[in-house]
Amino acid sequence: MVALWHELSRSLQRDTTWLHTPSRQDEPVSGLALLDRTERTAGALSAARAGRPPRRVGLLMANGEPWVRGLLAAFRLDAAAVPLALPVAFGGADAYAAHVRRIAADASLDAMLVDGSLGGRIVSRVAAAVPHVPFIDIAEPPHHYEDLPPVRGDGSSPAVIQYTSGSTSAPKGVVVTQDNVSAGLDAIDDGTRWSAADSLGQWLPLFHDMGLFTMLASLRQGTTTTLWQPGDFVRRPMRWLSEFAASRSTILPAPNFFYDYLIAAAAKGIPDDLDLSAWRYGGNGSEPVRRGSLQAFQRTFEPYGLRPQVVQPNYGLAEATLIVSTGIPQSAYRSLLVERAGLSVGDPVKKATEGLSARHLVSCGPPVAGLDVRIGDAEGTPFGQDTVGEVQIGGAPVTSGYLGLPAEQQPFTPDGMLRTGDIGFLHDGELYVMGRLKAMAVVRGQNYYAEDVEEIVKSTPGVDRRHCAAFAWDADGDERMVVIWETKLDADAAAALGQAIRTRLAEHLGLGAVETVAVSPQTLPFTSSGKVKRSGAADLYRRHTGTAPTAPEGQYT
Q1: 236-437 placed in CATH 3.40.50.12780
Q2: What is the mean pLDDT of the chain?
């Protein structure tokens, strides 16, 4: 195939291509200007290495034009870009520096691009942890050009090494080639029905796969991209939503918590002049999609121009160069009511009527073009429709594996399908995802999904909707489900709410062996992509109680 750089550079030459970065209050940059800046940055990067082009380039910056330009400069030099998560989820500068050191060693980084957006103290700490990696400041593009050889990379060359967030294990580098990325962008175009009339509005961090590949899809389409900082949304959600609406962006990707967060913020007031009528496709992925969130979001913002069926559930992962399936834009999403019990691998799906033992599952839509999706077991035996199993995928966007892992440890079935580690089923050709295989906990012989437990906890009045973690614990034969939840309540009120949580879990799941642990706000660990880190929560519980489980460590994910 044509090198990815050539695809992107052609699109950057269109007069419709623009990059806006409101967070930095910079002037909008045209595609042609971005192309020129990229060439100069790539030349400076090559010169900083005495003319030796880098093979793997780390990106250690917040969202902004330098981040985008650094990524493109890596492509221009036939180098693989390695996006690095920001320090907010790592519990201090030392922990973050250790995280970067592990990735720098695993990826064999030979350059790190920075722009001052993280602050000198953090960057200095990280630089001290990786003294062999040169740090190159690209806050401003150089004024002069360096002669660069033509791009010679082919489709099999690594384009991005995307490190997983570490919610279930130590971070692993997903290698995606130029062909993978090109095919993945085709899949995004197909799933969203992206056209020349569209434009992207995005606050997601670019180090995250959803943020990165959606941004690249916009650049390759030659459309306008408006890029905010994540903190702009988190700190001032209604102000951010007003800016998004004013940008007239038509496409926005986000996890389910984004929609819940805006619903909660709306309770404090919505600007009268808010106009969401330009918004055409809102992806809802990266974490389990809640039917209640979809309904409440539509109810809340419909009076402000939000059209029906704008928000579409989808499913994707870095290993697929993002999107696997999505609801069809402007079509009604589907959901099923199923029995919570009997949803283990190989079980037939049992439809249910309303009741405490029932669970609403939202369809993530049909597979997008270029992706093969099946449900099967660990050995690759495929299951039919309406049977629970592991989601397994194949196709041109799918990675060939993790960096440095031997073949026997790569997550593929004998016939070459990627094992995602997610549990779901197919119904009427659409994918329903229930949770992570490793997050299925066994308590006293019964299977429970951690996501199920956490959702019931979050729906308990008085509990913060995001901040809880559930995992199984077996200490000396005393099996139980542990729920850790954050609260500002005093001890007596927290104890009463803990009892309410246990009652709800017994009513909804028949789960009686439950221990609830209330902790202060901002105690639970989260991954760099904003998901609760259950392994870290189990470590927190271990320190809290001074006990050790008898089950394998890998269970706590």
Answers
A1: yes
A2: 89
